[in-house]
Amino acid sequence: MESSGVGFVTPRDVTFAGAEDEPLLLESGRRFGPVTVRYESYGSLNADRTNAILILHAFSGDAHAAGRHGETDRRPGWWDAMIGPGRPFDTDRYCVICSNVLGGCQGTTGPGSLDPTTGRPYGLAFPVVTIEDMVNVQYRLVRHLGIERLLAAAGGSMGGMQALQWTISYPEAVAGAIVLASTARLSAQGIAFNAVGRNAIMSDAQWNNGEYYGKAAPARGLAIARMVGHITYLSDASMHTKFGRRLQEREQFGFDFSDQFEVESYLEYQGGTFVDRFDANTYIYLSKAIDYFDLGGKYGSLEAAFEKTTSKFLLVSYTSDWLYPSYQGKEIVVALMRRGKDVSYTELDCPYGHDSFLLETERQGALIASFLQTVNRHA
Questions:
Q1: N or C: which end of the chain has fewer CB within 10 A?
Q2: Annotated catalytic residue: which of 235, 354, 355, 356?
Q3: Please, what's the b/e burial string for 238-252 (b: 16 or more CB within 10 A of its CB; e: otherwise)?
Q4: What is the pTM of this model?
Q5: Which CATH fold topology does 190-287 show?
Q6: Considering the domain 12-187+298-378, what is its CATH architecture?
Q7: Considering 41, 60, 157, 182, which one is annotated as catalytic?
Q8: Read out DSSP for 53-88?
Q9: 354 near 186, Cβ under 8 Å?
Q10: Residue 235 falls in the annotated catalytic set
Q11: Nearest by Cα to 36 from 134, 128, 108
Q12: Using CA atoms, how far apart are residues 321 and 324, in angstroms rounded to an integer?
């Protein structure tokens, strides 16, 4: 069993925007509620509640960032190597919080949740949500916990988008932003890959226009969507090192159409395990939220987007990340510098592709630990 620095953890739920609360006003203009948020926390708040760090998960992540839920957990949380005593997000110093995003499928209200007006899962009746909507829900959670200002908001990929949005939507509520392997807007290529994933799901006969709950799920469509997405998270070098052109359990080609290469079997495995833990409609909703994210387009320019930010920024990109390549991180850095913001940037030479922010824990961990100490001194 892999080690875990924070030990056993218990997920918690809190509900907002109910009958006695202000409904959530979505970016689309729709008012929505109630919203239940699942979150986990590691470490303790200090007396003045100034040591809180909000971890923001990527597309397929969830609130379980560190520790284990019990003895039967095969693996710890998805960023366990980064969170715990003596680790970059040091729980002896900081209170670390992670929540499942709005539209998710791991405890926070999403398309698979029950619609209180019908008693059935929302399906496609669930509203289209954006990165900003996710951040607005997170803000309510943070205020519910009695935290007025985060020491930092940190995340990779879609989590990095949320961290950027935090500094714009709530500039006085976050002292530092840690943005890893992320972007201020999705490229046409990124949108195209998301479109393929959504089409794979929606072309599955079991999808049934999103009304599959309690029936056979569109497992094959979701598995193919995951297979396509997973390719974008890797790099050519990492795939060559891990698989090359090696055959799976055979010495020669079979001259048929079954999976024969190791990489084929690997992708099938990734797709199959993903189906066991993720909801197809959530895939559709979250991928669309990523497509819509465009800070420059939304605020007139990237520089204008950061005009009112007061946070210190740390941005890290990775040489082998072709999904959100380094030039996109550098565009954010240039925009922040032109606005006179406090920003640090590093490009790590790393072979793991987009997944580098999950795997390259040693070097990025040292950068993050140092940055947090700097923010803590000036918060």
A1: N
A2: 354
A3: beeeebeeebeeeee
A4: 0.96
A5: Rna Polymerase Sigma Factor; Chain: A (1.10.1740)
A6: 3-Layer(aba) Sandwich (3.40)
A7: 157
A8: EEEE--TT--S--SSBSSTT-SS--TTGGGEETTSS
A9: no
A10: no
A11: 108
A12: 6
